[in-house]
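Private note to self, pasted from the team thread so I don't lose it. Backbone tokens:
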């Protein structure tokens, strides 16, 4: 039961709020116009922001072709040629401060230029400035904070130059005016010059305003590090998307294309540097091996001629081929051992968490561990740049990386042990083959030993030549590490400001502010504002509504809203058979007396005899309203030494009321306010008490007080009259 009652109250409150909002529609219109105007100004004055992106495919390293059955990438890493092609690693390169620093330098991004439109707002220029600022020597390399230069051409064809330098909390300003823009300006920061390019002046804005903002290189790098986004668009295809947001489409596209260019050039330079160093090492090694090969070739030929040996026997050839194969296998095992040792030393000698070089080792377990380790390291380095190292997640990730590193070291140890066993087995088998040489005649046996050495030297020499040729080809080709899928592309649709979003926000804010305004107005306005609010504040019947009018006293022959309202009130009082009528309100006001008089007069128009008892006023204050009315008689309560409450409670006053009831058709009592004792006394005598609630005058707490009197049974027979309504509210 109580729940239903609560729900009903909530429904009433919601309906009341809805009606109140509808009645205050003009508030929403005003806010709607204001916010719409602001939205329009914002859309047209705010520089457009565009998103530009380019997509590249990261190439995998081709390495060196398979030689002697050795894995190409294995040989490449052995020669220190390998570069990780993992897409996450390449993503870090794109976002590196080194690359961004080169970007800022090459494109001269320390200084940004803007022009101001008539509607307001500065719009960015790029490579289209009608004025070029010539900075003091080395100023951009030493600048701290930011320097803003505003240039404005006046109607007198002079130039106003304003400088503003910000460094931490200090702002330094400097102003000057030039008649000729070619003049130099001496400032606290050095001598500045200006070069005007008249071909770039917009004829629509001859008196344009220009703004140049210069910051330190580090500040600009930090800015682009936040603004430039590098995302993996396709993991399987190893594709990266480089994007940037900015006001200038040309600038955006130039930056994206330049980043890709710098990335490729950086990889090319790294490859060149590594290849040149490796070529030098291989070249020296080739000379040494070639010299050894020439010596052994001479010895073999000399021995052949000396001992008149035409050719080796089949058995001797087989022995040489077999021993050569074992020697090659031993060499491959030694190279693999060197690679895993390189990784082991790299891990042990590193004091920081960093990536492990990609070696493509055949050990599957080791490959998986290194891949997992590098993935976690990439995530760790990414998080370390954007958050505090004390972050619990970073600490957890670091512990995981260290644990994986220990597992890698343990796996490397096992791998090295396995390689050592393989090498020992090959050496053992090679020795067994060499034992067969003892069964061959001495002369042929010595020749086999020379031939074995010759074959091993020739194999190494061919291997080194192939490596040298492969590196030279790679050096000449200078292939990019990435393939451009899409060059920098900018959509025609700007991402900000958006007309639809701005309009939606304007409508939303208008509605919100209108609602807040009405609610605050209701909260701070302590007075009753309309009939609906009054109805929700009281359980008593609202018997009538009285309009505000210039003429406060009704007349018999008039048919205006005021006269109609009192006729309606009179009819209701007649139908309810109320003879003694008490008129009161929250304070002694003139309106209360007027309503009491008008109520009395309305009955006299029906030729009813009315006694008007005025507790508030003297006879002189109201006699003007009844001097020609034979049906109205007034009985003022004259001031005396007796307290008014005592007088009204006296037996004499009760007798007076009883006596005039027989003589008059109706008795109208103009009472004191509801807070007075007099009202409580008079309410007991009256058939009905009319409480006058005046719009924007009667306070809500007075209604609550009236309700409390009713609830405590101190008064009864109460009805309410709403006063002071507008003509629209009456209809």
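Design output:
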């Amino acid at each position: 039961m109580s729940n239903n009652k609560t729900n009903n109250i909530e429904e009433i409150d919601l309906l009341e709020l809805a009606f109140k909002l509808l009645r205050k529609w003009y508030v929403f219109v005003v806010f709607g116009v204001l916010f719409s105007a602001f939205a329009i100004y914002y859309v047209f004055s705010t520089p457009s922001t565009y998103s530009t992106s380019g997509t590249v495919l990261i190439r995998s390293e081709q390495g060196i072709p398979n030689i002697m059955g050795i894995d190409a990438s294995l040989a490449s890493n052995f020669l220190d040629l390998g570069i990780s092609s993992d897409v996450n690693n390449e993503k870090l390169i794109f976002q590196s401060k080194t690359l961004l620093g080169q970007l800022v330098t090459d494109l001269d991004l320390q200084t940004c230029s803007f022009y101001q439109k008539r509607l307001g707002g500065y719009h960015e220029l790029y490579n289209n400035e009608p004025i070029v600022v010539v900075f003091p020597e080395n100023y951009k390399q030493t600048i701290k904070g930011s320097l803003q230069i505003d240039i404005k051409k006046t109607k007198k064809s002079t130039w106003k130059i304003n400088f503003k330098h910000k460094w931490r909390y200090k702002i330094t300003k400097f102003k000057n005016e030039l008649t000729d823009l070619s003049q130099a300006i001496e400032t606290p920061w050095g001598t500045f010059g200006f070069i005007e390019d008249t071909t770039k002046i917009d004829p629509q804005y001859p008196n344009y305003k220009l703004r140049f903002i210069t910051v330190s290189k580090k500040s600009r790098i930090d800015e682009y590090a936040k603004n430039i986004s590098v995302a993996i668009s396709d993991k399987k295809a190893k594709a990266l998307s480089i994007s940037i947001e900015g006001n200038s489409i040309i600038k955006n596209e130039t930056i994206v294309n330049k980043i890709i260019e710098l990335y490729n050039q950086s990889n090319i330079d790294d490859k060149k540097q590594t290849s040149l160093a490796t070529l030098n090492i291989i070249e020296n090694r080739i000379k040494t091996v070639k010299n050894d090969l020439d010596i052994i070739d001479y010895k073999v030929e000399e021995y052949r001629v000396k001992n008149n040996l035409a050719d080796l026997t089949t058995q001797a050839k087989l022995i040489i081929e077999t021993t050569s194969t074992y020697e090659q296998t031993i060499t491959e095992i030694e190279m693999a051992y060197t690679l895993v040792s390189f990784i082991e030393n790299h891990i042990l000698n590193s004091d920081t968490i960093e990536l492990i070089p990609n070696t493509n080792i055949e050990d599957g377990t080791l490959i998986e561990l290194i891949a997992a380790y590098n993935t976690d390291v990439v995530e760790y380095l990414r998080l370390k740049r954007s958050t505090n190292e004390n972050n619990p997640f970073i600490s957890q990730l670091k512990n995981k990386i260290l644990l994986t590193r220990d597992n890698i070291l343990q796996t490397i140890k096992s791998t090295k042990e396995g390689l050592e066993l393989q090498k020992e087995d090959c050496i053992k088998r090679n020795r067994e083959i060499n034992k067969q040489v003892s069964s061959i005649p001495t002369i042929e046996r010595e020749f086999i030993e020379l031939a074995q050495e010759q074959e091993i030297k020739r194999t190494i020499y061919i291997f080194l030549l192939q490596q040298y040729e492969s590196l030279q080809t790679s050096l000449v080709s200078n292939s990019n590490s990435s393939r451009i899928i899409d060059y920098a592309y900018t959509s025609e649709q700007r991402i900000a400001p958006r007309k639809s979003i701005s309009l939606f926000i304007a409508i939303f804010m208008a509605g919100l502010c209108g609602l807040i305004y009405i609610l605050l107005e209701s909260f701070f306005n302590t007075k009753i504002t309309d009939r609906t609010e009054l109805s929700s504040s009281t359980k008593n019947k609202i018997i009538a509504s009285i309009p505000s009018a210039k003429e406060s006293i009704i007349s018999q022959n008039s048919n205006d809203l005021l006269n109609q309202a009192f006729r309606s009130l009179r009819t209701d009082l007649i139908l309810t058979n109320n003879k003694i009528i008490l008129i009161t309100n929250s304070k002694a006001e003139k309106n209360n007396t007027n309503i009491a008089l008008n109520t009395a007069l309305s009955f006299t128009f029906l030729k009813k005899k009315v006694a008007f008892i005025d507790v508030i006023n003297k006879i002189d204050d109201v006699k003007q309203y009844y001097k020609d009315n034979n049906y109205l008689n007034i009985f003022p309560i004259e001031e005396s030494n007796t307290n008014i409450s005592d007088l009204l409670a006296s037996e004499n006053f009760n007798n007076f009321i009883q006596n005039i009831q027989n003589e008059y058709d109706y008795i109208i009592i103009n009472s004191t306010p509801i807070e007075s004792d007099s009202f409580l006394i008079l309410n007991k005598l009256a058939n009905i008490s009319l409480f006058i609630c005046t719009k924007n005058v009667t306070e809500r707490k007075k209604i609550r007080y009236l309700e409390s009197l009713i609830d405590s049974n101190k008064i009864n027979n109460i009805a309410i009259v709403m006063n002071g309504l507008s003509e629209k509210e009456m209809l």
